[in-house]
Amino acid sequence: MKPARFLHLVAHRGDAAGHPENTLPALSSALDLGVRFIEVDVQMSANGVPVVVRDHMVMSEAGPQSVVELTAAEICKIDASQPQKFGAQFNGTCIPRLVDVLSLLTKRPQTTVFVSVGRGSVAHFGHDQVIAQVIEALKPFRARCIVVSSDLPAVHRARQTAGFPIGWSIPALDTHTRIKFEALQPEYLFCDRGMLPERYSLSRGPWRWVVRDVPTLDVALDVAAHGADFVATADVRALGEAMRAHAATLAPPRNPETTIAGDDTTIARTTLVRAQPPR
Fold it and tell me: Lowest-pLDDT range, 32-36, 215-219, 253-257, 259-263?
């Protein structure tokens, strides 16, 4: 029998199932749930301020506008309450700056944040300028932040200029991509669950795999059996509770290397899963 493995839970854009994604309420809720790994999306404003929003296009009072055409002050007035999903529940919730999000880390000193830099901003400003501004914002929290992007030069720049741990959001799970990440040697590799073929095994290496868009415990256990180390979800409350309940049904690990340190009853800590052979 293979040794037991650990699976970590990532709040993708915060507690986004119950709150507007990438907003302070969503991220505060995820922290209150005890989650220790969070992923946020970052774009760059016209005046070079990193803001936390998924797409480079936003709906302003003037209609659809690119984030890179607006100042941070203008962006931070834009409604992010997702009324089509939540009605009036989160009225007044706006797009936050990255520094506002990072300030929440003072409440939970063990939290790690994956800062996912948007390709739209990189394409407009260039990776040198965008990464420089993001790194400047991350400096007070550098031990707890990982720079992530689908843009390969951007993450390479983050490592080269500031020594940050990096994550690459891969475009495909194929030989060409594997050659690139074997050369890059990132600390993390990100992929969307939808790009996983029917039969696969995630390549082992010095990196750790983060699989996004994991909705249920069954899917989480399946991707873990195929090599995932982290699962990212919008419904962090439901999946976290399911993972914790599943962990409680398993026998305590006997191998000292797999012992959970600290409080293993929280969603935030690693959750034990049974390793299975690849299909």
Answer: 259-263
Distance (Å) of CA 66 to CA 40, 82, 127, 231: 19, 18, 18, 30
d(CA 104, CA 110): 12
Instruction: Locate all alpha helices (DSSP H) within 71-216, ordered by sequence.
Output: 72-75, 83-86, 98-103, 119-125, 127-138, 152-162, 175-184
Tell whether the model's pLDDT for residue 277 goes beyond 50. Answer: no
| CATH T-level assignment (fold) for domain 5-56+97-273 | TIM Barrel (3.20.20)
In Å, how far are 99, 145, 233 from 116, measured between CA atoms? 14, 10, 15
- Return the number of other C-beta atoms located less than 10 Å from residue 24's C-beta: 20
- 133-176 pLDDT, tens digit per residue, is 999 999 999 899 999 999 999 999 999 988 999 999 999 999 99
| Residue 234: burial class (beta carbons within 10 Å; 0-12, 13-18, 19+) | buried
258-270 per-position pLDDT tens digit: 333 333 333 333 4
Six-digit token string for 63 = 């209609």
Q: Can you tell me whether residue 147 is helix, strand or coil?
A: strand
pLDDT at 25 over 90: yes
**Gap between the Cα atoms of 58 and 78, Å rounded:** 8
Q: Which two tokens stand for residue 84?
A: 């089509």
Say yes or no to pLDDT of 279 above 60: no
Q: How far is CA 3 from the centre of its chain?
A: 27
Closest CA to 36 of 63, 7, 60: 7
Residue with tokens 């990196």: 207
Please report, as a single letter, which amino acid is at residue 253: P
Domain boundaries, the chain: 5-56+97-273
Contact 272, 253 (CB under 8 A): yes
